[in-house]
Amino acid sequence: MPKLTVQDLQPKGRQVFVRVDFNVPLEPSPEGPRISDDTRIQETLPTLKLLLEKGSSLVLASHLGRPKGKPEEKYSLKPVAAHLGKLLNCPVPFASDCVGPQADQARAALKPGEILLLENVRFHPDEEKNDAEFAKKLLGTANIYVNDAFGSAHRAHASTEACAKLASQAAAGLLMAKELRYLGGELSDPKRPFLVILGGAKVGDKIGVLRALLQKANTILIGGGMSYTFRLAQGRKIGTSLCEPDKVDLAKAILAEAGQRGVRLLLPEDTLIVQELDFAGRKVSPGKFTKPGEDIPDGWEGVDIGPKTQETYAKEISSAATILWNGPMGVFEIPACAEGTFAMAKAVAANQRAVSIIGGGDSVKAVKKAGFGEKVTFISTGGGASLEFLEGKVLPGVAALQDRP
């Protein structure tokens, strides 16, 4: 790990500003907003506990949702403070703003071993402007900065970049270090065969990742909406399936590059197709499977990979030594279209010899929903950050951290 980490710090008796990723889903309940998935909170607990054990006091900052630079009650972090207090078995005071008199008073009252959670940093437009003066206010009297929010590391914001540059010490949290180790170290020289599973809606969203992984992977399995653009590039008929006609030439270029590099790029052999898809209502009309190699007829839409493809892909997965998965195989949010994605989750979990890395976003939800979250090597908390890091892009929130001496 080339960056300074919390394990290198000696923060006893000092206040530490910690950028966490508490951008968690909230749902209504009789008692008020309730956290429906606390994975991101759970993942940063080791960092918080380590800093507390070292005798520091902690000021935590995070964003939640996209409030567009002004306070919105539905994006308040107040429910998170209560939830965090239960997880740590200690009170976690909440500041109703992230800067200003109330926040400053709450910081000043902190003693070693205590934690304060600030209100949503995105309630201020200066956060996303990466404003240095706003960053100074955020840091307050803390001169040690820790970033454990990998999911926000691709944003050059005040709490992710400017604060790190202003602090006397800027280190990675344990979660951040783990993300960099798996998405960077494990994949820089992967054990082979190295297999990649790529899904999701659009080729356009994964261009950079595809190009980067073509230089490393032995096999790439394609699924999801993006597969239909590849089919179109092969001259196949795709009915009314989701596709990007303007990306067909790009898909052709990727197929050609895979061939030149000797990378096996596999596309679905058969498909679950329906005539009507109501995504908002989470339902589809009765579907059927195409035969292997058969085109999708007019008026029908592909929504998942078929049984033959599931079998082929599972066999490929079983022989891999390193597996990276990003993106579902179909419209997995609808139960009738989730079988292909869950089959991939089962296959990845079954290969216990491999290093298996789930690269953030919907594939994480799918693995957990399928009940295999505990059987994979590593689940990334980053969505866009994971993709940008895998592309080889510099993440501002990582670059701003100090290097180890």
Features:
single chain, 405 residues, alpha/beta, six-stranded parallel β-sheet, 19 strands, 36% helix
Shape: elongated
Distance between the termini: 12 Å
The strands making up the biggest β-sheet line up spatially as 5-6-4-1-7-8
Mean pLDDT: 94
Structural category is alpha/beta
- Helical segment tally? 15
Low-confidence stretches: none
Main beta sheet: 6 strands, parallel
Proportion of beta-strand residues: 15-25%
Number of strands: 19
Portion of residues in helices?
25-40%
Rg calculated over all Cα atoms: 23 Å
What is the compact description of this entry?
This protein has 405 residues and is α/β, with parallel strands linked by helices. Helices cover 36% and strands 16% of the residues. The longest helix is centred in the N-terminal third of the chain and has 15 residues, at 39-53.
Show the helix and strand layout.
Elements: E1 15-19, E2 26-27, E3 34-35, H1 39-53, E4 57-61, H2 78-88, E5 94-95, H3 101-108, E6 115-118, H4 125-128, H5 132-139, E7 144-147, H6 158-166, E8 169-172, H7 174-188, E9 194-198, H8 207-214, E10 219-222, H9 226-233, H10 248-261, E11 264-266, E12 271-274, E13 277-278, E14 283-284, E15 288-289, E16 301-305, H11 307-318, E17 322-326, H12 339-350, E18 355-358, H13 362-369, E19 378-379, H14 384-391, H15 396-399
Parallel strand pairs: 1-4, 1-7, 4-6, 5-6, 7-8, 9-10, 9-17, 10-11, 17-18, 18-19
Antiparallel strand pairs: 2-3, 12-15, 12-16, 13-14
